[in-house]
Write a structure and sequence with these properties.
Blueprint (H helix, E strand, L loop, with lengths): L3 H19 L18 E2 L4 E3 L16 E4 L4 E10 L7 E3 L5 E4 L8 E10 L4 E9 L7 E3 L1 E4 L4 E2 L5 E5 L6 H10 E6 L4 E5 L4 E6 L8 E6 L5 E3 L2 E3 L5 E5 L3 E6 L4 E6 L2 E7 L12 E4 L2 E9 L14 E9 L6 E4 L17 E3 L1 H10 L5 E5 L20 H5 L26
Parallel strand pairs: 1-8, 9-18, 11-19, 20-28, 26-27
Antiparallel strand pairs: 2-3, 3-6, 4-7, 5-6, 7-8, 10-12, 12-15, 13-16, 14-15, 16-19, 17-18, 20-21, 21-22, 23-28, 24-25, 25-26
């Protein structure tokens, strides 16, 4: 076999050194001296693949795609497989370049283009482009996904949610589903899904989202086989952004709420939190909603009418942090205790001017962290977004892709909007 390609490889090194010596813009030799500039030869005779070769025949989407090097004089250097929607097929290439096989499922009823790059013993590049279609299943159900929250701008603590329209319990099926749910952020951060139960997943980064990030969520499950007669359906993609990094630290023992923006202290507010028997939950919470006016009734938290603890009040500037009725809100009736004592029924109360400032400053997804309270820990899922109270290693155990999630989701989450502590 000709040794010309090897000679061209040595020439490339010489040209590169000469161009560097002559400086930017100088040309030492033409493109003919670079083997990478040459048109790749047709590698059709050097490879085989598992797809159909006869026109009109379709591939079984349940079977992996396999590309094999048939010639002992060459090897596969790269394989790129995409479908008509631009989805890439993941795969693994053997160390010796003898074989490539897909590691992600093929979609049914879809057109694929496969580009195979090869190299012979002398380093000459070859290429072959293959196309094929996959067959449609004869009978199928579709698993549909709805992402949340709604598109918009949120605080850095906002988890991504995925709601399935039917339960998925099998770990292998969960793995397929989770692999098809894509979350990409700019700037990029490490993150993972957690199976809250058979129909609900939450996604969060290892730490809070970066400030002023863009988060894009999509499903690549359409027409992908998940289980017996169960295939992925279409899903509406979601894009959201984050604002400043806002964290409000509520120190129940010091009776102070300190607000930080992008790690700089902005304001310290005297507060009151839950009194004995009604202690505010400890832990990290996420602002779920902001309500200018909320009617709070003691009967909603089990306090009988006529009791010394009963109340029925209109409360202003209320930022909700739990579904069970915990808010940060205006409490003009307890101003004398704010900064000195805890006298509420679980909420964080402050003066009306301070509550208005806080209400205007924060957004959904911002963090409220309660420390030094004698209350119980914040629930992880059933009472708002307590996702951040799980250590990262524990969070990953709820992912099917990290070896967990088998039976991980067993909650009964009614997400009831129960109005109100005070």
């Amino acid at each position: 076999m000709s040794t010309t390609p090897r000679t061209r490889t040595r020439t490339v090194v010489s040209c590169a050194l000469l161009v560097s010596a002559l400086g930017a813009g100088a040309t030492a030799c033409g493109p003919g001296g670079n083997p990478l500039a040459a048109t790749p030869y047709d590698a059709a005779d050097e490879i085989s693949f598992s797809g159909p070769t006869d026109a009109g025949k379709k591939a079984d989407p349940d079977k992996p795609l396999v590309v094999t090097a048939e010639s002992s004089d060459g090897r596969i250097t790269d394989v790129t497989a995409t479908d008509s929607t631009g989805r890439h097929v993941s795969g693994e290439l053997a160390a010796d370049g003898s074989r490539w096989h897909s590691t992600s499922a093929l979609a049914a009823g879809t057109h694929y283009t496969v580009t195979v790059s090869t190299e012979d013993d002398d380093g000459a590049p070859g290429r072959k482009v293959l196309t094929f279609d996959t067959s449609k299943p004869t009978a199928q159900k579709h698993l549909n996904v709805k992402f949340g929250p709604d598109a918009g701008t949120y605080g850095v603590g906002q988890p991504i949610t995925a709601e399935l329209d039917q339960p998925v319990k099998d770990k292998a099926q969960r793995t397929v589903v989770e692999r098809g749910l894509r979350v990409e952020s700019t700037p990029a951060v490490q993150g993972s899904w957690y199976w809250v139960d058979d129909k609900h997943l939450h996604y969060r980064p290892k730490g809070y989202w970066p400030a002023h990030a863009t988060v894009a969520v999509r499903s690549d499950l359409e027409n992908i086989r998940i289980g017996d007669r169960l295939w992925g359906g279409a899903a509406k993609p979601l894009t959201l952004t984050t604002g400043d990094r806002v964290v409000a630290v509520t120190d129940a023992a010091a009776h102070r709420l300190t607000v930080y923006r992008n790690d700089e202290k902005v304001k310290e507010i005297p507060i009151t939190t839950g009194k004995p028997g009604f202690e505010t939950r400890n832990g990290v919470k996420v602002i779920l909603a902001k309500q200018y006016l909320v009617r709070m009734k003691s009967s909603t938290i089990g306090i009988a009418a006529g009791s010394s603890d009963s109340y029925d009040l209109s409360v202003y500037y209320a930022a909700r942090v739990t579904w069970s009725g915990e808010f940060v809100h205006a409490a003009p009736w307890s101003v004398g205790s704010q900064g000195m004592a805890n006298v509420s029924h679980g909420c964080t109360g402050m003066s009306t001017p301070n509550a208005k400032w806080f209400f205007d400053f924060v957004h959904e997804g911002d963090i409220v962290q309660v420390v030094n309270s004698n209350g119980r820990p914040m629930e992880t899922f059933d009472n708002g977004f307590g996702d951040w109270n799980l250590a990262w290693q524990k969070w990953q155990q709820g992912s099917a892709l990290h070896g967990g999630a088998q039976g991980a989701g067993t909650r009964t989450d009614t997400a009831v909007l129960r109005p109100m502590s005070l």
